[in-house]
Design goal:
Elements (H helix, E strand, L loop, with lengths): L1 H8 L21 H21 L7 H21 L13 H49 L7 E6 L3 E6 L9 H13 L14 E3 L21 H5 L3 H7 L15
Parallel strand pairs: 2-3
Antiparallel strand pairs: 1-2
């Protein structure tokens, strides 16, 4: 501190290049600290020239970085200084350490809570987008695009529905299974209208549906192989919509 006072108020030599030290009591722009930063800038320039650094940066760029680093250093140093206790005395080194550890734990806890909230919000947004897309898929296909079913007994215990196959429609068994599964798991939140949630079995061995293909759907909803087997006139009669239906890979949670 005597060196700092001598440099700022008398005619002292200033910071020692071989033993640089900041005066952490004051900001980066105090006469002493500004001189230290200036000496560090000179050393950076010398090293850049000596080592042929592949990039060039202005003095203002490096000065801003050094000032920011000093600000962080001073914040840490200030937090580590003994505080006045409730009894009017200064903290002991052990009390300072305990306070710093408690503060660190508090910051980490807040960071974890923020991360959990952020992840939860992201998951909710993704779920909402997936269900909106599934709703759009079913709504676009309409009733005519849904396979009919016939009931059957499985293992003489459970009544199941065997879904009839539709050759003209794109395979959406996976997407429909997701909807069916959710209806069974969350039957308390789905509207009571419609058929009772029941296990549906989709298999290539199931019978074919008698329903005819639906005209005017986006091309993405038709089976590519089925379309390729049609004549040009048959394709024209389908009146395939020019609307682009973006496909989504729905994740199963």
């Amino acid at each position: 501190r005597e060196d700092v006072y001598s440099y700022e108020y008398e005619d002292g030599p200033g910071p020692n290049c071989k033993d640089l030290a900041f005066d952490l009591r004051y900001g980066s722009k105090s006469p002493w600290n500004d001189k230290v930063i200036g000496l560090l800038l000179e050393e950076l320039r010398r090293r850049g020239d000596r080592e042929n650094w592949p990039f060039q940066r202005s003095e203002a760029y490096f000065r801003e970085i050094l000032q920011e680093r000093y600000k962080r250093l001073r914040t840490i140093w200030t937090a580590a200084q003994p505080k006045v206790t409730a009894k009017g005395g200064l903290e002991t080194p052990a009390e300072v350490e305990q306070r710093l550890i408690a503060k660190k734990d508090e910051v980490l806890k807040a960071a974890r809570q923020y991360t959990r909230r952020k992840n939860s919000k992201t998951d909710e947004d993704e779920d909402a987008s997936a269900w909106q897309w599934l709703q759009q898929l079913v709504g676009t296909l309409g009733e005519g695009g849904m396979s009919s079913e016939e009931s059957d007994m499985e293992n003489d215990i459970e009544t199941v529905l065997r879904v009839k196959n539709m050759t003209w429609r794109r395979e959406i068994e996976r997407e429909l299974d997701i909807i069916d599964h959710q209806r069974i798991v969350d039957d308390d939140i789905f509207a009571p209208q419609g058929s009772k949630p029941m296990k549906r079995i989709r298999s290539a061995g199931n019978p074919m549906t008698s329903r005819t293909e639906v005209d005017g759907l986006p091309r993405a909803l038709y089976n590519k192989e089925w379309l390729a087997g049609l004549t040009q006139r048959q394709v024209e009669r389908l009146s395939i919509s020019d609307e682009r239906f973006q496909w989504m890979r729905v994740a199963v949670v």
